[in-house]
Structures are given as structure tokens and as C-alpha cells.
């Protein structure tokens, strides 16, 4: 392992520079992979993996390399966060593509009107646009799941831990109509939240971006109970992009392999294991944040409860990938306040279906940006 | 350059084995890349390219690496098949994703009814499903462009050279209504067809799969005149998959770089240049095919005219990526005949919007499959 300095390079950020914390770009994990050095490199030769096919024997997800499927099952086995036995694996160009594949697969094929897709507010800001962009006749955005009153079939998306607020969630719709569920478990990994149980739902979505931090790879996977749903999802990915990049699949196998080897090989130092390292890193950020927020008269953040994590065998609070910031009385638009007063670009509450008093801030950006953000928050005074 | 044997390994295919020539999997080009050896390899380290971002300075296609854009422009400059000066480049997860991005971008945003998407038959078999899958309220499949009679706005897709039949095409709709055009130029490369002019259309699509043969990479690009169309296409790719795999982008830069270096570096042997090598390879297959077809009483294939290629400076016939086979009198369903009598899996004419007397056969599969196909065709006798 290459021993690199963990200190930030201390780049000076001028007070007038806008800090970009609007997206959830997971570059915080770069330093872990840098420390691991060349053992995580992949080499792809010019003639390798030129075919559309991944596995001619897979009668569901034909574009997936067999070693990708094995890696995904191994990772869930190591972490214990999801049941994969007797389940189908479908891979996509990010969980974004698979979310849309899921909605397509769960929608009735010949509806008299589009089925409603719901999520409890605050919900992930992109669901609505992803559902609405093509004005599909199969499905439509139905808004906040908590206020759904119709006696009509629906699809409810449960994001747990939730983006933006990190809360563990279950379904909330109270309709007598038949509902189908999509569990978006992008953040159900030990560095963000205690792993309290093996998730076991009909359709679960995961993403490489938020697990190991490799967002540039555009890779996600679904764990699916029903073979017909898995086949319909595969059909969607086929018509949308004829599968998933084989270069990406090669990297997924390598990176997941390195993560799992760390846990399964005798002699790994705990501090060098991916989830332990990353959890410590996020916890340190959250501790610094609490120190500043507790003193702030401008901002507040809801507290999280402790839980025992079956993976790390300790009791701890979550350390979510985002700060769900609330502006105190007198500030109506948190996003604008952050941008104008603090020169911090955040994503405002309205995008998540709630009040503009809230804004979402990335917790997984660079050290420099995070530290500068803390400095500006601690300097912010109510006028 | 590694000198590998060009001979087929002569794998014996049993006469009862089904030969899969239904897809256009471009594995024929593998042997070229194998000959080039390690100079085409890419290495990606664990910490590289973890961000969603490709180029923060690109105000259109923000997820594209700057070197990808330069490579694409360089390739068109070398080949002379398309104008890229003063045009925007948008990249996607294959031309498949970009085709859908194009249709979205060209559709009116608030239509009273969906705009018709048309293509002249025989048209690429996947357009219809890609357009219809989500029952969009923005656009719908309008069928054969040649028989379009409505006085309503439309989008016409012009595939040139055409898939399945290799014909050079222009728009065919004769409507007084306003039409928008998408030029799918996936096969407008020197190994398939003479490059007679620099294509210069509003929206042109290209794919890595059919250019260099790297279908597993899932990479395509669009050359776009209007910045607003380019931005809308980018938005579609963003909502569909948050960009394009960075591992793929890295490989595109390497492979296109090797192709272009060959032409721009002094001292390359012509026979080792990508397009010359690949053209020879396809021409040899076509010559073998003609020898068999000319004798056949069961099958026919329409002849192509010669044209001067500005790139290779010679006059030659096209050597398309597919055979568009016609069954002679008495055989009504060419696909079924091929499967039942010859154990060859092809794609039948109906999928392309025409008569089932036709079927499409891949010309870019393995040597073994192609040679076995020829053997079976030459043995086929009319009953």
C-alpha cells in the first residue's frame, strides 16, 4: 500500500470563490484508492471485450460479464446488507438507468392511464424529471407518497437511507390499491449508516458511485426477485443503450475484488479496509460539522439516533452523504442564502418536494471544499 | 506490431450447430487489434476518473472528457467523412442512446399530439421499439417514410449507408409540413463504403461499435449544428444515465489515437492501417459471397455500384456490414428457411418493415461462422 499523506493540500480558497456542493460527486473516496496504489489498476487490451455480449449463458442479463455477477453477490455476502440468494442481478448504466428500467418493468404494459410513481417528500430531486421527461403513457410522476389518497395502483420508491436527509425509511402509502415497491438502497452501506439487517425486498437498487465512490464509471445493479421483472428491466437497458460498458464492468470486478479481498484475506489492517476507512473519514467530517452547527444561529440539522451495525460490530450514528440543512427563522430561501451570503452552491428544498427553508449540501466532496464550507458556516451570523 | 496469423483457426462447426448471424456483433475487427498488440492497451488506476464530471468548462456536454472531443474531431478530419468545424459534439452510451436523445431534442416540448418519427423501409429494426417502448407523449413511431402522407411536422431518420441494405440514402418524405432530420451515419466509414463527400447535416450520429468494432464499449457521438439541440440531447443523456462511462471514454481516446496516428505518422505501412486492413477484410468476404450467391438458385443479393472514395483514392464497390438476402420464388419466409434448412439465425424482413422474403445476415462476425455460412449457402438447393 502506497502511504500517501492524508492531509488536505490546503489549497487556499478565496472567500469570493463559489464552492460547488450542489451535486453529490463522491470524490472524497479518491484518497483511499490513491493509498491502495497500483493494485487497483485495470489493463484492457485493444482486442478485448469488443462484443456486445457479456454472457451468452445468462438468460436474463445477457450483456453482464459472469465475473460481474459473482462480484456483486460476493460484496453483499461480505457486507451483509442485502439478500442475493435466489435473486436475479441486472446491471445498468448507473442506478439512474436502472431506476427507469424498474419503473418500466413494474408498469402495466397496456394501461388505461399511466400508473403513478410516488416517493415520500423530501425525495431524491431527480426522480420527478426522470419519470416525466418523455411524458410516458405507461407511468407518470405522482408526487409525495405520504399524501397519496387515490384508490389506484401505484409504484412507490423507497430511498433508504434517504437522499437528501439520511433517514431509514419504509413504505408510507396507505391506499387500498395494489402498490409495487422499488427500494433504492444507494446509501445502504456501512460508511453511511449502520447495517442493521439484510435487506430483502422484491426490487433493490444499488450504485457503484455511492458504494466505492466511482461515479465516473456509471454503473449500478438491481437485485430482483421475479424473473419476469428482471427480464423486462434487461429489455429496457437493451433498448436504451444495448447494455453496459465492458470497460466499466472490468473495473467493477477489480475494485469490488479489492474491497472484498481486504475483508476475506487474513492479515488486513482494519484501518486499511475500505468501509472502515471511509466511515472514519465521513464520521470525522460529521463531527466537525456538528461542532459548527451546534453553535450556529443560522442553520440547523436534525440529529440521528445510534444503532448497532452488524458489519462493524459497533453502535454509531449514521454519517450520511449529504447535509440536510435547515435555515432558521427569517431566512425563507436557504439555497439563495447559501449562494448569496456564503458563496456555497447547494440544492434547495423545493427540488426535493419540500420547503425552500431546506437545502442539501454534499458531504462527499473534496477536503478543501468541505473545510472552506465549515469556515463559512461558522462565520455566518444572523442579521 | 505483433504478427499474428491471419488464418482462421478452422474450428470445425458441426452441420447441426446453429450459426448466430442475427446480430451485427463486429468481432471481425478483433484480429486487427490483436495484431496491433499492447500499443492499444489502456491502464486505469483505482483513483482515476471517479467524478461524474468530464469537463467543467464545456457548457454543453459536461460529462465528456476534453480529449474525447479532440479525438472525435481528429478522426473526422483524418477520414474526411463529416464536417465538425463549428459543430457541437455530444457523446452517449452508444448511438442507441443518442438516437433517443436526438428524437427527444427535436420533438416539440408541449405537443398537442406526438410527432411522427419516420424512416424509409427497409429501416433499422430497432428504431420502432426504441421509439415506442415508453409510449411517449412527445413522439411516436410513424412507420415507412416513403409512404408518409400527412401534412404534419415529422422527424425523419436517414440511415446512410442503410442498415440493413447498405444503400446510400437521402431524405424521402414529400410532405409540405416541416420536417427535422436525423442522419444516422453509423456505417459511413471507408471500410464499408466509398467516402464520396464530407457529410454536413444538422444532426449526425456515429458509433464506436461500427467504426473500430468496439461494440462492448457502448460509445457513440453526435455532431450537432444547433447548440440548443446539443444541450437538449445532453440533458437527455444526463437524465437517462448521468453521462457516459469514463473508462469507455479513456479507451475511445486510445483507440482513435492509434487509428489516426497510423495515418498521420510517416512510415506506416498501408496494409497495417485500420481502414485499409478492414476494407480488405470485408472485400474479401464480399468476393467470396458473390461467388456463392451468383451460383445460387435459392438466394440473391442486389448489386452495388462502384464509386470513387476520397479517402482511399480508389474506385470500389461498398462492402456493407450486412448481407441483405432475398429468397427466390417459392420461399416466402427467408428467416425461417435459413433457420430450418441451413441452421443459420438471421433477422427477417418484417423487422425492417418489408417483406419476409428478405433477411439480414451479419457480415462482421467470426471467420469460422462466415465460412460455415458460405458453405451452407453454396450447398442449399431449391427443392
Q: Supply the number of helical segments of chain A.
A: 10
CATH arch. level architecture of the largest domain in chain A: 3-Layer(aba) Sandwich
Question: pLDDT average of chain A, as an integer?
Answer: 95
What's the assembly state of these chains? homodimer
Question: What is the third-level CATH name, the topology of the largest domain in chain A?
Answer: Aspartate Aminotransferase, domain 2
Q: Major sheet of chain A, described briefly? A: 7 strands, mixed
Would you identify the CATH H-level superfamily of the largest domain in chain A? Answer: Type I PLP-dependent aspartate aminotransferase-like (Major domain)
Shape of chain A: globular
Percent of residues in β-strands of chain A: 15-25%
Major interchain interface with per-chain residue totals: A-B, 67 and 67 residues
Number of strands of chain A: 16
* Domain module tally of chain A: 2
State the end-to-end distance of chain A: 50 Å
Low-pLDDT parts of chain A are: 1-8
Percentage of residues in helical conformation of chain A: 25-40%
Strand order of the largest sheet of chain A: 3-9-8-7-6-4-5
Tell me the series of helices and strands of chain A, N- to C-terminal.
EHEHEHEHEEEEHEHHHEEEEHEEEH
* Estimated structural class of chain A: alpha/beta
Query: Any idea of the CATH class of the largest domain in chain A?
Result: Alpha Beta
